Amino acid sequence: MNTCLRDAFPGTWIVPQANMRRPNILLTGTPGVGKTTLGKEIAARTDFTYINVGDLAKEGELYEGFDEEYGCPILDEDRVVDELEEKMSDGGVIVDYHSCDFFPERWFNIVFVLRTENSVLYNRLESRGYKGKKLQDNLQCEIFQIIYEEAMSSYKEDIVHQLPSNIPEDMENNLDQIIQWIEQWMKDNN
Question: What is the pTM of this model?
Fold first, then answer.
């Protein structure tokens, strides 16, 4: 048993659903922190299914309106949960979304909240075309750790982990740690 991994990610080793042979992972954080890049790379190196909730909602038109102030559709969270329920039951799913409090707690074995320094995040969001209130609100979300606090109140605290996501080396380190965690989880639970 890799005690280093157990120390790094305590509380994440128990199978939440008896039929799961592979763990489910939630990647969350403020827009622009690198969830999609990390999630796609994890999926490329494993046989896990990567689901970007924004893309899923767009494809299935899982919206309940449009937010004029932010210039984006409003997610229908209940329909998203219904759409994902069956996919989550077998395990081996990486879910990527900037919010997390509406996903059932039972779905995830581990939750990673990616964090980025504001100067780095500002540049990333600006390059995506974020401006004005939308840009400022997302920066404040990161400053005040809104997504981390949401994750801590939505899931068992010992499965929620913050990961830095500022430079390419952070992504490589995060990727290596998560792959090692997956491998160990599967050894321990199969």
Answer: 0.90
Give dist(CA 28, CA 98) in Å, integer. 5
Binding site: what residues are annotated?
32, 34-37, 128
The range of the structural domain enclosing residue 75 comes to 22-189
Q: Which whole-number Å values give the CA distances from 22 to 54, 165, 172, in the listed order?
A: 24, 25, 22
- 5-9, 35-39, 52-56: least confidently modelled range: 5-9
Q: What is the Cα–Cα distance from 114 to 161, expressed in whole angstroms?
A: 8
pLDDT single digits (tens) 140-160: 999 999 999 999 999 999 999
Annotation: binding site for ATP = 32, 34-37, 128
CATH code of residue 104: 3.40.50.300
Determine, yes or no, domain membership for 2.
no
Q: Which residue has the tokens 């750790």?
A: 145
Q: Is residue 16 assigned to a domain?
A: no
